[in-house]
Amino acid sequence: MTEYDAVLFDSDGVLVEPPARETQLEATRAAFREVGVDDPERRHLLDVASGVTVDGLHEICAAYDLDAETFWDARERHDERSQFEAFRANARRRYDDVTAVAELPVKRGVVSNNHHSTIEFKLDFFDLRPLFDTFYGREMTIESLSLKKPNTHYIERAIADLNAESVLYVGDSESDVVAAHGAELDSVFLRRSHRRDVDLSVAPTFEVDSLHDVAALVK
C-alpha cells in the first residue's frame, strides 16, 4: 500500500453536512430580487445554485439584462450568509467521524469549491482549524468559477503549502475524483448516505463509508 505524507479533504459532504438545496435556491432568489428580478426562471435558479460556469452565468445575466459582476456579488453574499445562518441554527452539522482526522499521522488540508470565507467559518465554528495545516476555498469572484474542481488549481496550492509528495484526496463527488486524477493523486470516494446511489464514471483509488476508514488507509 502507498505511504502518504499528506491527506487533503473536501469539506461539504465530507467534514460537514452539505447545504440543503432549498437553502441554496432561496439565496439565489434573494440575489435576483436584490438586482430587480422578482421571478427568474427556475432553470436559471437551478443553474446558478448548482455549479454555474462562467459562460453560463454571463448567458443567464444577459437574459435579464443584468451586469454579471453585480449579480454575482449579490449571489455570493446571500449564499455565504445562508450558510452561516444554517450552521448557527444547527441545521448543518459536522460529521461525528471527523474525529478520525486527528488520528492521521501526516499533514492535512482542506480543498473545497465553497467560498474560502465559508471554509474558514466552518473550521472555526466547529473547532476544526487545529486539525489542518492549510485550507482553500475559492474567492467570491466570477473568475474563481473556472478554478473549481475538477480544476486542480487549489489542490496544487495546498500541496505546495504542505510540501508533500505523496498525497491522498478525500471527496464525495465525481469532480473530486477527477480532480485527484488530474493532479496525479490517489483518491478516496466517501460514500455517505447522500451519495448512496451515485454512479461514478471514473474509478476512485478507494471507496469507503467513513473517515475512520480513511484513517485506517493512511496508517
Automatic annotation (TrEMBL):
It comes from the Archaea. GO terms for molecular function: hydrolase activity. Its EC number is 3.-.-.-. The keyword Hydrolase applies. Keywords: Hydrolase. It is an enzyme of class 3 (hydrolase). SUPFAM superfamilies: HAD-like (SSF56784). NCBIfam families: HAD-SF-IA-v1. Belongs to the HAD-like hydrolase superfamily. This is HAD family hydrolase. It comes from Halomarina halobia.
